[in-house]
Design goal:
Blueprint (H helix, E strand, L loop, with lengths): L1 H16 L3 H8 L5 H5 L3 H4 L1 H16 L1 E2 L9 H7 L10 E2 L2 E2 L5 H17 L16 H12 L40 E3 L6 E3 L5 H23 L3 E2 L8 E5 L7 H10 L2 E2 L1 E3 L12 E5 L1 H5 L4 H24 L5 H8 L2 H18 L17
Parallel strand pairs: 1-8
Antiparallel strand pairs: 2-3, 4-5, 6-7, 7-10, 9-10
Helix pairs in contact: 9-12, 10-12, 10-13, 12-14
This protein binds 2-acetamido-2-deoxy-beta-D-glucopyranose (2 copies).
Amino acid sequence: MLFLLCVNFFFFFFCQSSLPDEAVYEKEKPGVTWPKQLNAPLEVVDPEIADIIEHEKARQWKGLELIPSENFTSVSVMQAVGSVMTNKYSEGYPGARYYGGNEYIDMAESLCQKRALEAFRLDPAKWGVNVQPLSGSPANFQVYTALLKPHDRIMALDLPHGGHLSHGYQTDTKKISAVSIFFETMPYRLNESTGYIDYEQATTPEYRAYQEQVLRNCFKFAEALGEMGYDLVSGGTENHLVLVNLKNKGIDGSRVEKVLEAVHIASNKNTVPGDVSAMVPGGIRMGTPALTSRGFVEEDFVKVAYFFDLAVKIAVNIKTEKPGTKLKDFVATMQTANFQSEIAKLRLDVEEYAKQFPTIGFEKETMKYKS
Ligand SMILES: *[C@@H]1O[C@H](CO)[C@@H](O)[C@H](O)[C@H]1NC(C)=O
Ligand SMILES: *[C@@H]1O[C@H](CO)[C@@H](O)[C@H](O)[C@H]1NC(C)=O
């Protein structure tokens, strides 16, 4: 008895003074070592992946992100997404799950549904909402399965005309359902009296201000590009992105995209009317949401247009030197010393510019690769 008491005292003081919990656990349950590993940080468990992530942070900080569907996630969203909620299995809907232990998952999903209906000003007595599809193609698929029966047809743009893969594409228009499906990246709602879509007003003042800045930036960006002689396909029809038709510059989207990437500007090649191939399309599509999140305003987008123009000029010069049709030859010519030094110079200017703006989702001070 006395012996046991001594042992207990020994453990008590040992635990309090020097050993961390895991070491105590190891002593009590010999051979059980994994909880320690499971609670260790990424840079300890998998330094290679941790290092790749550090490189990605540097890329996001130094580059100009113009892909219209990309953006920077906030710290708060990352905290929620990378949380213990990821451990749960939750088939079904709140209150009707296949597995147990969904008390808090149900609370979170119900709250999300409530907020979604409020954002679209829909009466919860009359409307339901499915908040499970995460994004993009799965969300599109949900819309289809909600509105269409198997073998129903929809009207969508052909891929070379700017359609999206998940919309499908077909030319047989005999039996098209008269349903317009809107796929949007910004909040909107249906005005029931006019039948038109209104952009959502019920939002926080910060979000509203951000959204308006996205549009002002896009307008200014389009204006600057127009003044430089670029032919804008979507000027006026889209609010947050511009589609530049490069045909009048004697170059295509694939080649320009390669040079843009090399100078640290992320964009995507895109088909423009009249294109026959989605692989070598005539345009470049660029959007303002991501850089607006980093604090870019109108004058910054004039600068972005200027960088874009310099990259297009390099692409045109490379093509003049190697006029063939193969993208492979273009890329090889791009690697020659002459063009590499031009590219390196522009890349440095782009990076110096982008680095002045804040990082989103992580602190600059915590970065491994700052120079
Ligand atoms: C882009 O990301 C920021 C920060 O995460 C967010 O506030 C903003 O709403 C996002 N923009 C769009 C268009 O979703
Ligand atoms: C619907 O549109 C009309 C015409 O623009 C407008 O007067 C009305 O306020 C809109 N309804 C709502 C609920 O916003």
